[in-house]
Amino acid sequence: RTTGKGQYVVGRLLLGVPRGAQFFMALCGPVHVYHLAQEGSQHFHESQNGRSGLGASQITPIHFAQVDLHAGDVLALCSVLPPAWESLLNAEQRNFDLLRRDLPASTSDDLNAVLVRVQAGKGVLKILPGVVGTSEASTAAGKQEKVSPVALVGAEEFPAPVAAPDQPALVVPVSRVASEKPASRFSRLLSGESDEVLAPDGLAGLALDALAGPSPDGLTGSAPPELASEPAQAAGPAIPSGTDPAQTVRPARLITRPAGGKTRQVISRPGKGIPPPGVSSETPEIMRLTPQRKQQAFRGMAKWLRGVQVFTRTTSEKIKAFLPNLLPNLRDDEPRLTGVSMSFIAIVIPLLVVTAALTFYNRHGRAASYQENFDQAWAASVWASSQTHPAEVRVGWERTLYYLNIADDFQETDELEELRQRAQLALDNLDGILRLDFTPAIVGGLSTAVEVTRMAATNTDLYILDGAHGNVLRFYLGSLGYQADTQFECGPGLYDNGVRVGEIIDIAAAPRVNTLDATLIALDSTGTLLLCRPSPGAPTAVPLATPSLGWRGISGFALDISSGYLYVLDPPGNAVWYYAPDQFGGYSTLPVMFFGSQIPANMPAVIDMVTNGADLYLLYNDGHVSACTLLEFEGVPKRCSDPAQFMDNRPDRAPGGVITDAFFTHMTFADPPDQALYLFDPLAQAVYRFSPRPDSLILQGQFRAADEDRAKMLVSQATAMTISPNRYIFISVSGQGYYATDVP
Fold first, then answer.
1. Residue 632 and residue 596: Cα distance in Å, rounded?
2. pLDDT, tens digit, for every residue of 36-91?
3. Residue 632: CB partners within 8 Å, gap ≥ 6?
4. Bond from prior residue into 572 cis (ω within 30 degrees of 0)
């Protein structure tokens, strides 16, 4: 909620989901993700809009990205990046154990981060125990500073005796508390921030807890290596003459006693239940005596609890004895209630009371609640209409919709719908949204077993790539909508010319005029084209010539309608290969590498590619686009704008490498004469329209479903989008495809 005074609470969100060998990320706000792999590191961060985050607007500005994981990769996710972490994460030596130690040690901030190491396995998550982050300087200092047990406490009343040459010395342990003041009693004593003065017995017990058992702050300590390596019978230093033994702390020594089949090391002193060296006896435990003041406090607490118990029991007995006096006694001639009668009364009377209360609430309470929230919405709309700054106008209309949604739960009225349309129209004008009427496209819908990954369309046909089976489905336009062509063949198999086709990975509508009379061009992962025709025509398989460097992993292709050039995308190979058509309209010649000396960075992250005959555009999984020119000039190498700038002309927006409130997965060009570039956001089910330039993309607007269609279309996330030559927009949602015909 907002205060109406320009005050906001903005949150940060960082989610990560592994699926197989891929890691999907959702980032909102100035959060950071580092992916450290053998081939290099990647840094994901919303640097273009540092003010974005949860709660800033009605639309959650989530930025999505994904990376491919391999065994040995390291992921570092943090909400706030400490200054020293950037150099550690970007260093050439990125050993996981070193990072696990050095990252907590390099800062004293309150950390909110996750460090992950990827290993080959069955998807089991193993949470490693916490480690103490120590820098090299602190480690070196810990090795040099060796003091006696008394010096560990730092009490001025007990002078530390000088250790004998063969006497083992204790090492000051590093505090495991990351805050400014140590939390545990032992850590405060070590850091010198406590004014407590321990008696000699208390000191020996403290050293035992710290080095041989669980510490007060929940950590388990162990004896230092220096003590473990020395003999247990080392003699302690002598007590100076003239000193009262009761006021002198005797040095501790290390002894070993078996405990449950294992050897345990403890700290003790002569004269406290430990026999002298050479005497065979069972070593007693060193017990800590409870101070008398603490015992008195426990006795007082026990007396208080006993008094509360007696008071509660006495009060309960008196109430039980008093309640029967409130009920009238039955006369001798009055009938007594049976168990059935009492059960009937116990059920019917509460039902009657609840029914009467609900009836009153439905008649009066719901109407009052509706009117209260509608008045709040109306006041917010009046305030929004009086504002001039776009950010304040947006806040006002978003607040209007908020109260209208609450009022709609109590009552539906015409005035509510009218105000809702007014508020939605105002927000749409701020975001450049045009609402379209989407209708179901496929008669009878799609089967739940179909997984739509790609779509292509002509003026009369709709083609859907089923990613679950690797084949293509055809639907032709009829009187009631698009009907399925059950005899259509376009998928994996062995064809007449002896060419085997694998699972289809990408499709595109074929040119209207081609030598094979095909209506659809499909491509499999081995580089074989499949030219498909409507039934009863059979498809034709045409293998592409393999590049001299071979294929690393084909993910898609793009066809230039004007020139007939075919571009094949190979992200793992950092390559885009293009084929020139031969005299028969095929692609029998060897391909040519598209990029020259300049190859866009992070090519393995490319997820889609399109061309308009003049420029080639690459879409990355983080939402940015690279624009590469296709025109060649003598002496001028090909160049790419990476990233191409999004010119966002909406109020309170700025140009940048990404659209912060959108997540793009597909893009396509419309046919001439107006070759606009359309990018699809499946989460918002929005189609963004851009005017392409060689180095930038100018936002023209976006298309979304109308209010009456959103309820049925927003049931799940969309998966694919395409545009036909006659300007029909097709969107695939789980179990159905929708299309709009009135696209400008």
1. 11
2. 888 888 888 876 554 567 776 666 778 888 999 988 889 999 988 888 888 888 87
3. 638
4. no
